[in-house]
Amino acid sequence: MKKIDVKEITALILCGGQAQRMGGQDKGLIRLQNKALVAWAIDRCKDQVGSILLNANRHIDQYQIFGWPVTSDITPDYPGPLAGFQVGLTKASTPYVLILPCDTPLLPVDLVERLSQAMTQSEVDCTYAMTIENGKEQVHPVFCLLKKTTLESLNLFLQTGQRKIDRWFASLSHQKVLFDDPKAFLNINTPEELLQIEQSLL
Predict the structure, then answer these.
(1) Disulfide-capable partner of 11 in 98, 108, 159, 193 (CB 3.0 to 4.6 Å)?
(2) Taking residues 174-189, what's their average pLDDT?
(3) What's the burial of 24, exposed, middle or buried (CB within 10 Å: 0-12/13-18/19+)?
């Protein structure tokens, strides 16, 4: 069974949302322990992939400081995460693209290893994370590994006006991958959640 080499994977970090629950702040630039959230994501994934792209729709110059290419949505008006997926699949020069959000500072250091292993074992086009929380399955579709060849399918899906990730995934061959630690996928949507994670890191 062929193993996917990390050099064949580009990580796309989604920084393009409006962050309305954070008062419209640019979430990737919000600081946790005096380090921008996007820098946490970069540090957690940089050894898992061959290259990184940042998907941002504002403050482009500030994102460029982190030293990775910055690319904006092809579709205007903040159509949602799938617009970021589209950018990553379009711009990446590698056969695989890892998607992850900018607001999850504790993301698993074995994320790529687990997702890529499941992809080769199951021979699917898409793998994504899930956890069990309070006895219930919790899916995390913005933590996913995609084959670049899924771009055509995504373009057609977006042309129909649809925006839901799970609905697009349903049209692909896909596999959920169970991760043991739900805390690894904690994302920051409110000032209260930022404070909670800040305190948990002390």
Answers:
(1) 98
(2) 92
(3) exposed
Helix (H) or strand (E) holding 133: strand 126-133
Point out which residues pair with 10 in neighbouring strands.
51, 97
In angstroms, how far is CA 114 from the centroid of its own chain? Answer: 15
Look at residue 76 and tell me whether its pLDDT is greater than 70.
no
Give SS3 for 55. strand
Please tell me whether residue 40 adopts helix, strand or coil conformation.
Answer: helix
Domain ranges, residue 194: 6-200
pLDDT, one tens digit per residue, over 92-112 is: 999 999 999 999 999 999 999
Average pLDDT estimate for 125-150: 96
**CA of 35: how far to CAs of 39, 42, 51, 103, 173, in Å?**
7, 11, 21, 12, 37
Cβ atoms 58, 76 nearer than 8 A = no
d(CA 27, CA 70): 15
CATH number at residue 161: 3.90.550.10
